[in-house]
Amino acid sequence: MGELISYYIRTKEFEKLQAMLQYLPKHELKELLLHLTIDEQASLFEALAEDKALELFKVLRISQQKNILSTIKPPLVQNILNQLSPDDRVRLFDRLPEKQVKRFLSILSAPNREETLKLQAYRPETAGRIMTTEYVTLTGELTQEEALSKVSEEARRKENIYILFVVDAQEKLQGFITLGQLLTVKPTVLIEDVMSQQPVTVKTSDDQEQVAQKVKELDLIALAVTDDDERLVGLLTFDDAMEILEEEATEDILNQAGLSDLKDAEEDRSKLLINGKMNKILAVRLPFLLATLLLSLLSGLVIEGFEQTLESIAMVAIFIPLIMGMGGNIGTQSSTVFTRGLVLGHINMEDFLTPFFKELRVGLAIGALMGSLAGLIALLWLGLPMLGLAVGLALFATMTVSSMLGFLVPFILIKLKVDQAAGSAPIITTLKDLLALLIYFTCVSVFLGHLM
Fold first, then answer.
1. Neighbours of 389 (CB within 10 A)
2. 316 vs 296: which has the higher pLDDT
3. Rounded to whole angstroms, how far apart are CA atoms 448 and 452?
């Protein structure tokens, strides 16, 4: 299905695309997005009905939401942002660059902008910052019939209607009643006569993790958030509480691994490299590339130094791309394994040697297998046992060294507080190429020197 959708997007057959998408549930659409390019994702969103586009947007991760907002057309951006609940909007804005937040605030309706700014005024990681302000309140003097009418009227515009809080004229919290309880009492019964009078509450200044934990422990649908004057100002819903606990658990893992500062630093560097000014981006990236340019010239000197070898045994050149390429492949694998393990807390910077030696053993095993295979192929292909031995040993040594570099280079850059995202790949690639050539030509000289 993903291929067919991509085809309709490429051929601009949007009527067929819309007909296909209208019956797909949001969980299937979410899965489809994983197989589309950013531009294709934007086309898919623009083909959806507005209400369905909003439903899909709400279930995406914030990183995906940021990508979508950067590619879809401005009218759709405005529509989606205005229909998000205030707490979801603030959570998204907290992950965006300040300049982009200002632009998005300017396209919100006046009430939505006011509500967003009100939540942003609370300190980060507090109940006030994450609460929703979309809920239905009742007063004690309402009858069941009047209360149901109010709920029906406001339900479409509110995030939570399953727990209804009762307030007085000053918005001070008096009690609560669930929608299920409300439906079971007689139409003439007053709310104040059937409501529960001891709702669980928290303050806007309370820590978000403690508040979310309380929702989980007490198995609440929603928890009331009050200000210092006991006035109801928001709710924390169960699903929002679970999101907070998940985020906090991830942060705790990073802290235990000693990675919290690294996470903040990497986040700042990422923002700079993606959203920063051109001169600042160049200042980060160019030094690594200039340094590797000089090192790459050394690779040329190595080849020049073995020019006589290449002239005497021309077939030696056949295997240079193989050895350099395979070294690069395992080096990239190793650096990816290291970076992911570090981010997820599986690698501790203070206990680097344990995973490093594990990766060394992996590199030796893979190098031995690939080297044996390449050496056998060289022998069968060209009929020179010594060339096969040279190729096999060179590939074994190159892949082993490259796997070590994949762990060592990013580790050293992080220890030096240098941007490893911009520096690791160029340094690993250049060092690997230089060492691969030295190793290969040394093996050729040792095993095939009698042919020169």
1. 18
2. 316
3. 7
Helix axes 208-218, 238-256, angle to 10 degrees: 120
Provide the edge-to-edge strand list for the sheet that holds 135-138.
Answer: 135-138, 160-167, 173-178
The DSSP bridge partners found for residue 202 are 225
Residue 234, SS3? strand
Q: Which amino acid is at 269?
A: R
pLDDT at 259: 44
The strand pair at 201-203 and 232-237 is best described as unpaired
State the first-to-last Cα distance of the chain, in angstroms, to the nearest integer. Answer: 60
CA distances from 125 to 25, 63, 136, 216 (A): 33, 19, 25, 17
Helices (H) and strands (E) in the chain, counts: 23, 6
- The pLDDT tens digits for 158-203 are 767 788 999 998 999 999 998 889 999 999 999 999 998 788 899 9
Structure tokens at 448: 């095939």
Which ranges of 314-384 would DSSP assign to H, the alpha helix? Answer: 320-343, 353-382
3-class DSSP state of 109: coil
In the DSSP assignment, the letter for residue 131 is -
Neighbours of 164 (CB within 10 A): 23
Is a pLDDT exceeding 80 seen at residue 263?
A: no
Rounded Cα–Cα distance for residues 354 and 348 (Å): 9
Residues 6 or more apart in contact with residue 229 via CB below 8 angstroms: 172
Q: What distance in Å separates the CA atoms of residue 133 and residue 410, rounded to the nearest whole number?
A: 45
One-letter amino acid for residue 335 of the chain: S
- Residue 138 DSSP SS3: strand
Looking at residue 260, its pLDDT comes to 47
pTM above 0.90, yes or no: no
Is the distance from CB of 396 to CB of 370 less than 8 angstroms?
Answer: yes
What CA–CA distances, in Å, run from 165 to 22, 168, 190, 202, 433? 37, 10, 14, 14, 68
**Angstrom distance (rounded) from CA 151 to CA 144:** 10
